[in-house]
Amino acid sequence: MAVVLGDLSRDAERVRLTLAEEVQLVETLQGLITALDEHPTEDLVIIGADAPLSVATDIAERYRIERPPLGVILLRRRIELQSLSEALRAGIREVVPADDAEALLLACTRSLNVSRQLRHVEARSGDSTRARVILVMGAKGGCGKTIVATNIAAALAATGEGRVCLVDLNLDFGDIAIAMQVDPVRTISDALGMKGGLDQDGIRSMVIPAGERLDLLLAPRQPADAEFISVDLIEEVMTLLTEAYDYVVIDSPPALDDTVLKCLDLADSYVLVTTLDMMALKNAKQTLDTLDALGYPRVRWTVVLNRSDSHVGLTGDDVEKAIQIPISVRLPSSKDVPASINRGVPLVRLSPRHPFSRQVIALATAELSSRALVASDERKSRSRLGMRLIQGTSS
User: Fold this and answer.
1) How much is the mean pLDDT over the chain?
2) Mean pLDDT over residues 309-320, rounded?
3) Across the strands, what pairs with 137?
4) pLDDT category of residue 83 using cuts at 50, 70 and 90
5) Cα–Cα distances in Å, from 3 out to 70, 86, 288, 301?
């Protein structure tokens, strides 16, 4: 059941007929807030064409933080580029012509699919018994994504706080095997023969040890094998990895394909690596804008500026202004970084006190803290539940 903010004669009946289900009409902002408080699992709000744009953006901005799965769709009699841009920046998922029933139906379907994905992510992230999944993405090829992913994984393993698996999902041209200088005698391609029946023994047969508490799951040796590795198989593999490890770091492919979208659903945090050049900046902004439109909250993002001290006419401030999200980690340029890759040993292992290593270790420490916070919140929730049960028994 959708909640509709608008006029009964114009909006609610049109929506009801379009969606072929009952809707709840509210005519004021306070009425909408009350309705959503009373229905915490409602995932769809449709704002009528006569509502001011400022009201719609206020609603979207409020609930994108308080309630990320809730999707807001805005009806407009005329769609203008400026108002469309303002609506999407605020977190409104779709802006639809008021008289286009087919467009409204498709928009509602897409929004509810995003909501289901986000609720799935919330349920997974609230489980402290599964691995924390960190997705590392690159604004463009050559930005240092693989270097960042390998060093994050090595830094997490070095803490001694749990086992780590570094996964190379750049299935066509993965570089983890080269970066870690291991022979890819086992890869994710080995899962093809176990699809549908994969278990923990199968996972152990595919990974390659790369040091204490660190294993690797490598990309296929032959790029042609990539076409046979489906999104369903990736989900099956990732689910088992999250049960076997404490941290899973994913080195993702350099495009927003189905593999990356599935990883976004599975991940707890997203690390976007960019550099000080216009092409990387453009791609970073497009990536963030696209994921905003799909409903992936920016609170999960960490922006890493690689080679941040390069003198190329752009600065970190220029990057922040363009992408409208703060840079969390600034990695300095150093010849020691490619030298460590040539040795097959992440720099955080070779030189933990190196300025580059210190920044990566700080990022890894933040991931440790986030996982600990989830576990703490879960323990508090169990404690509160226990107290309520005790109080209920006593009364």
Assistant:
1) 85
2) 86
3) 272
4) confident
5) 11, 22, 28, 30
Helical pair 258-266 and 101-125, crossing angle rounded to 10 deg: 50
Bridge partner list, 135: 250, 270
The CATH T-level fold of domain 2-99 is: Rossmann fold (3.40.50)
% of the chain surpassing 70 pLDDT = 89
Does the structure show a pLDDT above 70 at 144? yes
Coil, strand or helix: which one is 299? helix
Residues β-bridged to residue 74: 47, 95
One-letter amino acid for residue 98 of the chain = A
Confidence band of 395 (pLDDT split at 50, 70, 90) = very low
Q: Is 121 helix (H, G, I), strand (E, B) or coil?
A: helix
Interacting residues of 59 by C-beta distance below 8 A, sequence separation 6+? 5, 29, 32, 45, 47, 72
Q: What is the DSSP letter of 345?
A: S
pLDDT tens-digit map of 175-213: 999 999 999 999 999 999 888 888 999 999 999 999 889
For residue 50 the two structure tokens come to 């006569």
Tokens matching residue 101: 């029933």
Backbone torsions φ then ψ of 63, nearest 5 degrees: -85, -15
Q: Distance (Å, rounded) from C-alpha 112 to C-alpha 108?
A: 6
The H-assigned helical ranges of the chain are: 13-19, 29-38, 53-66, 81-90, 101-125, 145-158, 176-179, 200-206, 231-244, 258-266, 278-294, 316-323, 336-343, 347-350, 355-394
pTM over the 0.70 mark: no
Residue 8 pLDDT greater than 60, yes or no? no
Indicate the CATH number of 123-369 among 3.40.50.300, 3.30.70.940, 2.60.40.3710, 3.40.630.40.
3.40.50.300
